[in-house]
Automatic annotation (TrEMBL):
The lineage of its organism: Bacteria, Bacillati, Actinomycetota, Actinomycetes, Propionibacteriales. The keyword Membrane applies. The keyword Transmembrane applies. The chain crosses the membrane at residues 53-78, 99-122. This is DUF4190 domain-containing protein. InterPro entries: DUF4190. It comes from Nocardioides iriomotensis.
Length: 131
């Protein structure tokens, strides 16, 4: 049996990074900094119009059945398209492209559904009520 001494114990204040175990790879997020620490990835700020497009799109999608509220989906589509154009023009300084796309999709869907509801209501009144 070997005698354990301070000389053969690892240093407690060593902050050197450990090598990954066999079969495992090193973490990919961030980049290595001096001293063995990892930085966290920095995300660009989300464009406000992208968030506006998403919120208006979801609200109008929920309220499409009221006919006129569904047509506010046009606002979501316009805001989403403008946000995507500005996000692309920013060359990575702004984020939120996914939110802008979601706003465009939900806004367009709300407009289509409200058109169907408006047609059904007008058809019902034109024919004089239920058949």
């Amino acid at each position: 049996m070997a005698l354990v001494t301070a000389a053969n114990l690892p240093s407690l204040d060593s902050h050197a990074p450990r090598a990954p175990r066999a079969g495992r790879s090193a973490p990919r997020a961030g980049r290595a900094l001096p001293g063995g620490t990892m930085s966290t990835p920095v995300h660009p700020p989300v464009h406000r119009r992208a968030t506006t497009a998403l919120v208006v799109g979801v609200v109008t999608l929920v309220g499409f059945w009221t006919c006129f509220a569904g047509f506010l989906g046009v606002v979501a589509v316009v805001q989403g398209v403008r946000a995507r154009a500005e996000i692309r023009a920013s060359a990575g300084a702004l984020g939120g492209d996914g939110r802008a796309v979601a706003g465009i999709v939900t806004g367009a869907l709300a407009v289509l559904l409200s058109l169907v509801v408006a047609y059904a209501v007008l058809e019902t009144f034109a024919t004089g009520g239920a058949a």
